[in-house]
Every structure is written in C-alpha cells, then in structure tokens.
Amino acid sequence: MPHGSDPASRKTADALESREHKSLLRFITCGSVDDGKSTLIGRLLYESKMLYEDQLVALAADSRKFGTQGGDLDFALLLDGLNAEREQGITIDVAYRFFATDTRHFIVADTPGHEQYTRNMVTGASTASVAVILVDARKGVLTQTRRHSYLASLLGIRKVALVINKLDLVGYSREVFDRIEAEYRGFSREIGFEDAVCVPVSALKGDNITALSANTSWYHGPTLMEYLDRVEIEDEVQDAPFRMPVQWVNRPNSDFRGFSGRIVGGCVRPGDRIRVLPSGKESTVTRIVTRDGDLANAAAGQSITITLGDDVDISRGDMLAAAASPAGIADQLQAMIIWMNEEEMLPGRSYLLKIGAKTVGATIATPKYKVNVNTLEHLAARTLHLNEIGVCNINLDQPIAFDPYAQNRDTGGFILIDRLTGSTIGAGLLHFALRRSQNIHWQAIDVGKDAHALLKGQKPCVVWVTGLSGAGKSTIANLVEKRLHARGRHTYLLDGDNVRHGLNKDLGFTEADRVENIRRVAEVARLMVDAGLIVLVSFISPFAAERRMARALVTPGEFCEVFVDTPLSVAEQRDPKGFYRKARRGELKNFTGIDSPYERPENPEIRIDTTVSAPEEAAAMIVAHLIAMGVLDPP
Fold first, then answer.
1. Domain stops at, among 439, 459, 478
2. Is residue 2 part of a domain?
3. Strands (E), 228-281
4. 250 and 225, same structural domain?
5. In whole angstroms, what is the distance from residue 549 CA to residue 547 CA?
6. Nearest 5°: phi and psi at 472?
7. How far apart are CA 272 and CA 300, in angstroms?
8. End-to-end CA distance of the chain
C-alpha cells in the first residue's frame, strides 16, 4: 500500500498540517505580587497535557522540597525557576513558556508582581496581544493591578482577561466577584481596553481553568482556556504599509548585494517601489531572497533579503518602506517614556536611543508631565524616577525613520541605553514628530569657523577646566586668559559663578539642573569656537557624561580637558566662599564632594596637582600644552 494511502499516515499528515496552520497567541500574565500568576500558568500547562513524564516527576520532587501546598503539586514551581524565586515564593524575572491546544499555539510570559520589577513586565508586554491580569479575590484591585493594566494598554494591548483568583478563599462568593468586576471595568474603559472578560477562578484547585466549575454555578461566561482559544486578534501589521529595518547589508561576493531584515509591517513583492529612509532615495524590488529560494511575496514576520534595481547607498539601521506611504522622518519627537533605572532620568544628559537596528544619540527634555497610574491624572515633573511614566520631547543627533507606536509597535517603540554602562534604562513609545523639527533646518552660512579663525589668526579650541569647588579653577583659568591676551589671542572665559547670574540663573543644584547647566554652557562654548575664539570654561562639571558631551560638540583636536586635582580636604580647608561650612551644617544641599558626587576625569589632557603646583605654574603648563596642540605658536 502506498505510504500516502495508509490511514495512519494520513492521520499523522493531517495532524501535522493542522499543527502547522494553527494561529499563535502571545499573552502575558501580570498583577500584584502573590496573586497566583505562576500557579495559573503551571495549571494551564498541566491541563493542556504539555508536561512530559520526567517534568511531572521533577515537579513532584520539587513540590516536596520547595512547595507550599503540603506535598501536593505546586504548579508555580514550573515557572519560578530562579533560586531566589523558590526561596521567596515570588516571581522576579520574566519566564516564557510554550503550550498548545487543538486550536492554537501559545507563548505566555509570566511577569513579576513587585513594583520594583515593573520594568520586567514591560519586556513581556511589548510583544503580547492579550493580557491576563490576576487579582486576589481577598484584596481586590490594587495599585499594581492598575499599573500593569495601564502599561499593557500603553504598549498596545487591547484585549484583557481579568482573572479573579483564589475565589476558593472567599467561599466562591458571587458578591466579591461582582464588586471587583465592576471596579475594574470602570478603570479598563478609561485606559482604552476594547474587550475585558472577567473570569472567576481558583488556579490552585483548577476552577474555571479548562472546565466550568460547579462551585461557581452563577457564572456563565467562558473558562480561561476557552477565552484564550477564541479571542480574536487582528493582525494589524499585515495590513499596514511595508516596513523593513535593514539589519545587514548582505554582500557575499561582488555579484550580489542585498539588504537583510525582518519585515515588521505590510508585505512586499518583486516590482514594488520602495523608499530608503532617512535618505529618501527610491528604487524597485527585483528579488526576495531566502535560504530556501526566491519568494513571489513576503509579509510581516518573515526574515528576508531584498535586492534592488538601483545601486542605492543603504546601511544597517536604514529602513525600507513603501514608496507610496513611507514612514516619517524626524530628529525631534514626542514620546511616552517608561523609566526603568534606579537612577533618575536627567533631562539634558546624552543617552543612546535604539529603534530597530539603528542607534542614535538622544537628549530628553524636562517631562511635560508624568502619569499617576491610580488616577490617570497628569502631574508636573522635573524628571522621572524608577517605574515612572511620563511624556517628554526627545532631541536626536540625527534623523530617524519612524511610525507612531499606535500604528506600528516595531517602528514606533525604542529603548534608551546608558552610554557608559550599556544597560537599558528606559523604554519609549513615539507619538509624533515635533512641528519645529519639520520647520527648522540648518541655514547655510558663507562665513564659517575657518573664516573666523583665519581673520583672528588662530586655531579655536575649548579649554575645559574641571575640579571641586575651591580647587583653584577660576584662578588658573583667569591666569591662562591673561597670558593668552598678552599674546594677542582672542579669548573668552566662561566661569561657573558668572554664568549663573544670567544664562543659567533659573537653574538650581539638583543633578538634573547641574546636567542642564553644563549642557547650556557646552553649547555656548561650541558657538564661540565657531566664532574662532579660544574658550576657557571653568566649571565644577561633576559628571563625566556631560564632559564627554561637551567634547563631542567640537571637532577632534579642539578640546582640552584640564583636571584641577585638589583633594577634598584641601579644598574644604581653603573654602574661600564658605560653601563647605554651610554644606557640613546642612544649610547647602547637593553640594559637590559632600552630598553630591564628583566623577574624576579618567584621561584628561592635563592633570594639575595643586598641592605641588602653584597657580602660575599651572597656567604655564596649560599654555605649553596649547602650543603642543598647535593652538598657539611657540614663543
């Protein structure tokens, strides 16, 4: 009998084909700590027969060793894999699990409940279509319930199942269920959930997980598994305009040049006209190449290589988009930011922003407002702290291609990265380009820096003098300027105290204000360099990030960092303005060296030890270095 006509073979083939064409649903579980998220997912895995025999044996052993159910199976242990989680009985990381039913494949992310791990929940929600939000029937809707619901809504999730868990501990009370359901439905409408289904369950006992329970005869809605099997998920990216961030320029030999990436919106076919962003160049798709051969078309979710009919300059991080409906391009945008770092966001500090495969420099303005997740009211804010959410303007050092996050998660979502540590410190959702970014352009100027410098007969530069208060910065900078003036050089001295009388009189001494103080001064110094001047900057400038930013604003070879290295004890002993005495008495807050940090320069061009060098000697050292740099001519 031919293999294809064997009934068993046909049955196997049909099963495999059915499995191949099942839809995939990604969902998250979230809520407050100890609401039973891990137990619920463990129960789903168990009820859907997705556990192998050895896993059940291991679960039984772990339940005896770590479990909290008196020797019965503790389903939470299937998810809480970290030792710290098992010891504490809580989830602190995002755990992903796969399971399937006859109708669907599922990928579920079990996210932490503690407030300090809200940032982990953002990771799980960023790719999910449905949120399963748990509430302990004994506690009702809590702050963290609202926080996770609001974040899920922000991140584009529109379908939610509110699982009112541990109903067995309140006697399967319908009154408790109705009260919690009414409270949550009011909140869910405010944050834009299109579909909220409330299910009474006991994850531990299995009530209403896969079959309706006799303990809740008053409930006539779907079980949780029925809801997950049947919930309709619109595949919006399939109907969106074509988008493909370029991850790799594929050039195996001189005869082939393609552009590889994953399609994140729409579809593409050979012959389609595409636009390269941000350059705006256009071309036509000639081939769609994959490992298994060329395709007649490709859609969102597929990873492909595209070849074009024209020799267009394209790099990693560029975007290929439908020419008829391209993405936006801007370097100034408004975004919702979720701050995920222990250290507060510092407006004006330079961070890295990664969107798709493109990474650019970014500075964040003072928030327009932050959101109170309990009341949804907008609150005034100077900065954002861990887990806070706010709307801010962002300035980039180069234009990016983007779509509003509401239209496309992949081309509208980004992360923020600390330049020094490389750690992710925030996530954001782009709203729109600022109008001024479209209206403000660089104006061509005929008389530029070279012309100004030629007229003055000198090479412009920035001499950035940093150190503690009382180190002697202003004295040394003043002596250097006198020497340069005597040589006929055109200079200007920007002193920290003097600038705060005018340009920066609105700033205080918080970390955020100190960052903005240096940002403004660095921009002024850059303009003065463009004017052909030798600029002396005398500021404490306590943070290395802002000194790096100031250096990056001018051309290499035009910046000289001078570290006036005076021990704190010596600077405090001098205390010419009495600041240290006030700080020690608690009358002066955020004073550098006392209750605010000073980050020592690691590789300054000049280090001056004022315990062994007098101010005149220090000034002579700086002048000698400027001669070595070619800024000054030898005497």
1. 439
2. no
3. 243-245, 248-253, 256-262, 267-268, 273-277
4. no
5. 5
6. 110, 15
7. 15
8. 102
Determine, yes or no, domain membership for 523.
Answer: yes
Number of independent structural domains in the chain = 4
Catalytic residue among 350, 469, 541, 613: 541
β-partners of residue 273 are: 284
Establish if 457 belongs to a structural domain: yes
pLDDT digits (tens, 9 = 90+) for 144-199: 888 888 888 888 888 999 999 999 999 999 999 999 999 999 888 888 887 789 99
Q: In this structure, is residue 82 part of a structural domain? A: yes
Tell me the H-state helices in 457-598.
473-486, 496-499, 511-530, 544-552, 568-574, 579-584
Active site residue 188: no
pLDDT at 589 over 50: yes
Q: What is the pLDDT of residues 546-559, one digit of tens each?
A: 999 999 999 999 99
pLDDT tens sequence across 43-60: 777 776 655 565 656 665
Domain stop point among 322, 342, 364 = 322
Q: Before 278, cis peptide (omega within 30)?
A: yes
The overall pTM is greater than 0.85: no
Here the CATH number for the domain that contains residue 302 is 2.40.30.10
Q: Which tens digit of pLDDT belongs to each residue from 394-418?
A: 999 999 999 999 999 999 999 999 9
Give residues with Cβ within 8 angstroms of 623, minimum separation 6: 480, 483, 484, 632
Burial of 384 (0-12, 13-18, 19+ CB in 10 A): buried
Q: Are residues 62 and 197 in the same domain?
A: yes
Residue 179 neighbours by CB distance under 10 Å: 15
For residue 304, the enclosing domain spans 237-322
